[in-house]
Amino acid sequence: MRIESVITYTPEENERIIEQFRKKYGSLTALQQKIAMRKCTAPEMVDDYMVWKSLEKKGASLTESHIWKSAEVMNGITARRMELLEHIHRKGDESVMAISTALKRNYKNVYDDLLALEKIGMISFRTSGRKKIPVARASRISIMLDE
Amino acid sequence: MNIRRVRIWMHRDEVIDAVEITEGKRMRYYSYTYRTRGKNGWENQVRWDNFEGQPHVDKYDSNGALIEQKTVQEKSLEEISKIVAIFRRNLVAMNLEEL
To answer: Pairing with A54, which of A5, A13, A45, B93 sits 20 to 30 Å away (CA)?
Structure first.
C-alpha cells in the first residue's frame, strides 16, 4: 500500500517561498557564500539554495509530496481531521481560533487535531505576528493498493 | 524547471527527504536524505546528492557532523527508497559505495 498527498504551489505561493528564503538567508549570493564554507555540515542549505535558484527562473513549478509506505498513517486520520484539512485547504490563512469558530468545535480539540495532522506531514504552521496559521500541505490524497 | 520535494515516511520516526530539479527530461539536481527522529528533531543519517555535478554519498553522526563522504554512481529516488527500506538504520555502518 502507498498513500500519497500532493500539493502544487501557485506562482503566488512560489513568491511567498522565495520571500521566506530571503528572510532566512538575506540573498541568493549570501546563501551561496554560506554553502561554500559549510556545504557538507548544512546540507539543507544546499537544498534551499538549489530550490531558490530554480524558483527564480521563469515558469518554474514546485510540487511537494508526502508518501507513506505503510497503513500506519491511517491511525492519524479521522473524519474530523479530514474535515479540518478540507477547511484549511479551502479557506486558507485562518487562525486556529477562526477555524474553531467556523467549524463550531472546541479550540483545544481543534489545536490537538492540527498537531496530529502536522505530525504526519499533512499541514504545517506558519507564523503571522504572534499567531500560528495552519497551512494545508495537501491538495490531493491518493491511496494506491497495488504498490 | 520543475522542482519536486518529497518526504517518504518509511516509519513514524524515519523519513527520506528528497529534492529533485528537472529541466525537460534532464535531472539537474537531486538530493535524497535519510533522516531519523531524535531528541533534537530530524537528524541526518545518510545523504546522496549530485551538487555541482558530483554524485556522492555523505554519512553523518548524531551531532550532524559529516563523518564520511564517498563518490558513488547517480541514484534515483526509487533505488534509494529500496535501499533504505532494506537496510534502514544499519546504513550508517555500511559501505555505501558497494550498493
So the answer is: A5
